[in-house]
């Protein structure tokens, strides 16, 4: 039975930390019921101060896990009107020495995971002629940098997939927004096994005072989403003022 709520359901992947956690609280505080997905469901369950929520253990590489989570949430809160593809990893290392497993994980989570998220909701949004998909990419999708070869490629793929999907579905009244942050105050690089690359990246973080506050990004996405459906903010590239590129 659908719970009565004045606002539609918002689905967020990678909601256990960083931007995803901030998104969970930002939208919940604004009165939206939220579907929170992550591999670490116990962390999502610890958000006891968010009342209107469904939590689900989801690996974005597995589309059926996303679909089952959506089915569960929609049975209580109605259709997903906003889907935020936030889950991602950024293991650093030179192309030559980075383990193949890290390369494949980056592509599977950062690219295939986004495709799985989009494919889980887009057809229904097209049928309803209403909905918004926000894909969290990165400045790395525009500019390459040392020790980021695979991550650069993954985020560039997200950029182009989002752009073309948006063009194809504009006639269907479905919005796509691409968010491309620079360095953010998160633990995104924690999966790195190359300690030299991680040290160099840590120095870059220090040079920009830790990077962007993820709460700012979450609040910006809320404002973008709450614009009328006929208004589409297609792309936002943002960094700390001190970040050069």
UniProtKB/TrEMBL annotation:
PROSITE patterns tied to this protein: ADH_SHORT (PS00061)
Example of a GO MF term: 3-hydroxypropionate dehydrogenase (NADP+) activity
Coiled coil regions in record: none
Catalytic activity field: L-allo-threonine + NADP(+) = aminoacetone + CO2 + NADPH; 3-hydroxypropanoate + NADP(+) = 3-oxopropanoate + NADPH + H(+)
Pfam families associated with the record: adh_short
InterPro entries listed in its UniProt record: NAD(P)-bd_dom_sf, Sc_DH/Rdtase_CS, SDR_fam
Annotated keywords: Oxidoreductase
Source taxon at top rank: Bacteria
Keyword Oxidoreductase carried by entry: yes
Record EC number: 1.1.1.298, 1.1.1.381
Function: NADP-dependent dehydrogenase with broad substrate specificity acting on 3-hydroxy acids. Catalyzes the NADP-dependent oxidation of L-allo-threonine to L-2-amino-3-keto-butyrate, which is spontaneously decarboxylated into aminoacetone. Also acts on D-threonine, L-serine, D-serine, D-3-hydroxyisobutyrate, L-3-hydroxyisobutyrate, D-glycerate and L-glycerate. Able to catalyze the reduction of the malonic semialdehyde to 3-hydroxypropionic acid.
Family: Belongs to the short-chain dehydrogenases/reductases (SDR) family.
Protein name: NADP-dependent 3-hydroxy acid dehydrogenase YdfG
